[in-house]
Specification:
about 220 residues, mainly alpha, Alpha-lytic protease prodomain-like, 7 helices, single chain
Length: about 220
């Protein structure tokens, strides 16, 4: 089933909405990332540090997407070559996240270091679980309407933040309850798997197709 082509005014409205969502993502994640990395380092929580780094990576991806959307609005059209390049760069951010979290998780398991509990980390993760699902859904809706891989890649990055929040919260929460230090790096490995999957789809430009299937 083919969708009806959007009018120029609707494309511009949705593009502006996508730009605003990208700008909000940058602002929110810069703050979230700084707090998460600080708390993670203080408590020795690998997954919380990975969560903070993911926030930084998500900010970078959102900046790249926002720049391209702003360029579209200025020039009235998309530069397909530049947008394919940006999509590849966004995909690379997924792989960087996966590599970092895997490395730190393995190092933590080998060293056997026990993290400290962190109520601040718990509060930060719960807040992310409130904000990020709404943000991801809004991005996906805009990206699907525009059939836009860049916005859908940004939405996928935000969805990883949601999944990361869940796995990190479980890892940190269960550690606080059970004292099992291995739960924290294992939560990080789950994050890495999600990141690799989404990065592969972004690199291959399959996000529009998959999103369309999800909407059926």
């Amino acid at each position: 089933m083919t969708s009806t082509p959007l009018k120029t005014e609707e494309v511009e409205r949705l593009t502006r909405q996508g730009l605003r969502l990208a700008q909000f993502t940058v602002a929110y994640n810069v703050i979230e990332g700084a707090v998460a990395i600080t708390v993670g380092i203080m408590a020795g929580l690998v997954s919380v540090i990975g969560f903070g780094i993911d926030s930084g990576i998500e900010s970078i991806a959102a900046v790249l997407v926002g720049l391209r959307l702003a360029g579209r609005l200025r020039h009235g059209r998309a530069d397909e070559h530049k947008e394919r390049l940006v999509l590849k760069l966004v995909a690379v951010t997924f792989f960087i996240l996966a590599a970092y979290v895997t490395f730190e998780g393995v190092r933590s398991l080998i060293e056997g270091a026990a993290p400290e509990s962190s109520p601040v980390a718990i509060i930060l993760l719960v807040l992310s679980l409130i904000v990020m699902p709404v943000l991801a859904a809004m991005k996906k809706r805009v990206g699907t309407r525009l059939a836009d891989n860049l916005i859908l890649a940004d939405a996928a990055e935000t969805r990883i933040c949601v999944l990361l929040s869940i796995s990190t919260l479980l890892g940190v929460g269960l550690y606080m309850l059970t004292g099992a230090a291995w739960l924290d790096p294992v939560a990080g490995f789950i994050i890495a798997l999600f990141a690799i999957h989404e990065g592969k789809e972004a690199w291959e430009g399959e996000l529009v197709e998959n999103s369309g299937a999800d909407e059926d």
